[in-house]
Predict the structure of L-ascorbate oxidase.
Amino acid sequence: MRLPLLAAVCCALLASAAVPHCAQAAKARHFKWEISNMFWSPDCEEKVVIGINGQFPGPTIRARAGDTIHVELKNALHTEGVVIHWHGIRQIGTPWADGTAAISQCAINPEETFTYRFVVDKPGTYFYHGHYGMQRAAGLYGSLIVDVAEGEEEPFKYDGELNLLLSDWYHESIHTQMVALSSKPFRWIGEPQSLLINGRGQFNCSMAAAHTPGATQCAAVNRQCAPVVLPVQPNKTYRLRVASTTSLASLNLAIGNHKMTVVEADGNYVDPFAVDDIDIYSGDSYSVLLTTDQDPSSNYWVSVGVRGRKPKTAPALAVLNYRPNRASKLPALAPPVTPAWDDYEHSKAFTFRIRARAGTPPPPATADRRIELLNTQNRMDGHTKWSINNVSMVLPATPYLGSLKLGLKSTLTAARPAETFSRGYDVRQPPANPNTTAGDNVYVLAHNTTVDVVLQNANALAHNVSEVHPWHLHGHDFWVLGYGEGAYRGDAADEARLNLRDPPLRNTVVIFPYGWTALRFVADNPGVWAFHCHIEPHLHMGMGVVFAEAVDRVGKVPKEAVSCGATASALMNGDHL
């Protein structure tokens, strides 16, 4: 059951009020975190990670729908700011808690403390991560699980639950990576050294070397990089929650000899369907049901491999441990083989099967506005950038939420961002004019209007290269209406590809190489919201836009959230938020 929007707003604004859905058993859950750099060995190679309270990954938050989360966060990083984005939480009534530096709040300075307060309004599988610079790639992330409200039930049954948070890991620091991506000439950061499952992986060796020609068997490893073990009982059904917070890699998950039934995507129920493996892009989350119906005398490999890029990173492995077998008993069968990295038909076959479960609210029949966003790779003053409609996004010193709320005239550039691209643009060739410019890419949306967004992929600067891009929208779920090949034309043929009957609700969606993806959402959540490629280096290089919605309707914004840049000066001069 989903929380109605009105009830969600009430919960967000009046967490203690007598709102039927959220007052029955809603709780305030308090956390006190300190974020700091620390030595850690995620893949058995000691490096510096960003941890929370001495943990990597960060602590798991568990709550029920309607609960209010309080996180008192101290920044103990010595030389840089920090924010936390609560990925998939819509922040209804609390846009200042979204945790996007320069958009919803100021970065929290070293030795400062900031308190996030927000309501988790609907159940699902979520996570949190840093959203300042490339701190997510440094390990600043953790799981956020929201169970159904007290007295309610999921629309599927299971006996137990397991949680997998997937990520990739670089041995180079994020500061070196950012310098490389911003350098002239451009220096690409390459592929990650390891894939991690719940923060653990093994570099330059394999737990399944007997089945991997040329691989070295991993010797005894320390606790920080020991393979993840998932204990299960035979003949039971488990809910496996899976989320990806990767910096670069698109992934594929499979479990030896076991099928999975997909039941949730990005905190929304889907029409159940069975698969042998799932593709999971950065920013995605799923729940799958797993039945332990195989030979109980064996354990089985859980394998996570790279998709969408020519893999130079070895798969990550975990062990599905059928009790009472020893956890150290290695599976006899070889790990599942990840589909070929460029088998996009396999990827599409999975993605196209994701449909909304019966009872999911349908999208509005028509839209008030359509925004078409062409994703291109470009050059600017000798630098390599990613651009949207030939503008590479640059974030301001003053958070948009504060500056727009105060009506500061210097907030936005005079030129408004383009809402379409030339129908003559050849998406299968490198850009004829590779040059781009920088801009704010802020689209101002009228309150309660229905907006269609078409994401158009294209060839990069090099010939015959078009990459996978997972796009994530803050502050909203959207309906994924459809996908297409080649250039979007908006004609009858493209319209015929759209699904208005049972499109899934998501907060992250993929655009395939040389293709387009269409989505629809209602601008019913006042605030300023990022919409961007969830690949960390792509966002760093400018691949994103901002949606500003009815900022005049936003309630009181805490001064500490936006007291920096021009907003700080305005507040000192007596202006009020």
